[in-house]
Design a protein that fits this description.
Oligomer: single chain
Helix content: 40-55%
Shape: elongated
Largest sheet: 10 strands, mixed
Number of domains: 2
Number of strands: 12
Number of helices: 9
Amino acid sequence: MIPLPTTKATRFKNEYSFPATVSVSCIGTQIGVLKYESKKTNPNILIWGGDDNYVQTAGHEIVQGRNFSPQEIEYGIPVIILGSETVTNLFDKRVNPLDKFITVGGLKYRVIGVLKAKGTSFSFGGDKIGIIPVTNARMYYNTNGRMSFALSVMCKGAESMDPAIAEATGLMRKIRRVPFGEEDNFTITKSDNLTSMLIDNMQYATLAATVIAIITLLGAAIGLMNIMLVSVTERTREIGVRKAIGAQAATIRNQFLVEAIVIGQIGGFVGILFGIVIGNVTAMFLGTGFIVPWGGLP
């Protein structure tokens, strides 16, 4: 094989001078089918082309094997790094996936690494993934000659973000030959932009949770009202005896009101206790932390 011609994306990576980690990547296909011997995945595997920095900038971690070498990136050697769920679908637990050859779209790839389970949230990430060298993806998936490449720049700290963006903007304008005074013909997405997107989505989730909570409270109130109504009906003899010895209607009403409040508070306490226990058990099962929303407690 011969090295592919330098693209604008690789030129950006080579000329970027700010101290940061830069990666070039692209989507090969979102409906990839992987096969090993008699096992085959569903057509829902994301085949992603990445360079030697992509695993780091995308927030992945290799738990088995290794990352791409510079030679594999340069010459587009058919090697692949698999997501944890993809490995589970293709190989038995007793089989070591490293150095095994699998079929991806009719081509043979050697497995050189396995990613740590990352999970899926808000349509980001996921473990149904296979990462191949970006040059290999460009050779075999650039069918119409219009493949788009993504550039990721990972700074060393939040204080470096603005200078890194300024450096990236100036370099990209130079590479894309944007005339002075004209607007950028490219888009830079910061990590806080992604955070804003997630916050916007969480607002809808919060609204839905509020509506569900109101309906739940309404249902609980109706249930409690029915229980107290039955209680009053079944305790008419007690009420009659109390009236006979001089109890006023307000005293009897206050008694049932206090009983309803006490029962409601006991139910709320038990619900909070169960929520904390179930939340911690779920967090232990998922391997994540559990935070009690003290501000939302009554």
